[in-house]
Design a protein that fits this description.
6 helices; alpha/beta; single chain; Alpha/beta knot; 7 strands; 178 residues
């Protein structure tokens, strides 16, 4: 791996329901060197093919924890800054001042974060939307917020070499230089 490694935020999913979203988020977490934490009961089993398929070959590299109860997660991490992501958030994630070590908490795909959790957390962000949609896909939302964090915390230092992880398909099928 390149010496220019960086770390993304710790991503927390509260009671995720769709295995493909969780698999996509796991893949993103590996790409950004971000831990993934799931709190509460997920709407699927970890060994479901859809979760594994979406995560592809990344699962062995994922930093993963599961807390069956949010209270257990809270006891473990309450001394770190936990940022709730909600359409009812206080400030745009695009202008938020993320700091190294932040934990970013997302609700599930159908209900978001429960109001009781939102009241417990003093810091919340939202993703701006101007079109007539109710919400964004969870894995898309996690990606946008995670990269807002990377930009704010690491800026231009968040680089990688394209040679760190070769793209085997393109390498095999690359046109010959004449």
């Amino acid at each position: 791996m390149s010496s220019n490694t960086f770390e993304g935020p710790t991503i927390v999913l509260h009671r995720p329901l769709i295995p493909q979203n969780t698999g996509n988020i796991a893949r993103l977490c590996v790409a950004l060197n971000s831990p993934l934490i799931i709190t509460g009961k997920a709407g699927f089993r970890w060994d479901e093919a859809a979760v594994r398929r979406a995560g592809l070959d990344c699962w062995p590299f994922l930093q993963f924890q599961h807390f069956p109860r949010f209270a257990d997660f809270w006891r473990t991490y309450r001394n770190r800054r936990i940022i709730a992501v909600s359409k009812a958030g206080a400030i745009s994630a695009l202008s938020f001042n993320f700091e190294k070590g932040d934990i970013v908490l997302f609700g599930n795909e159908t209900m978001g974060l429960p109001p009781v959790l939102l009241r417990k957390l003093p810091t919340s962000v939202y993703l701006p939307m101007s079109g007539p949609v109710r919400s964004l896909n969870l894995s898309n939302s996690v990606a946008v917020v995670a990269y807002c964090y990377v930009r704010a915390v690491w800026g231009d230092k968040a680089v990688h070499s394209p040679h760190d992880y070769p793209r085997t398909y393109y390498r095999r099928h690359a046109p010959k230089n004449s």
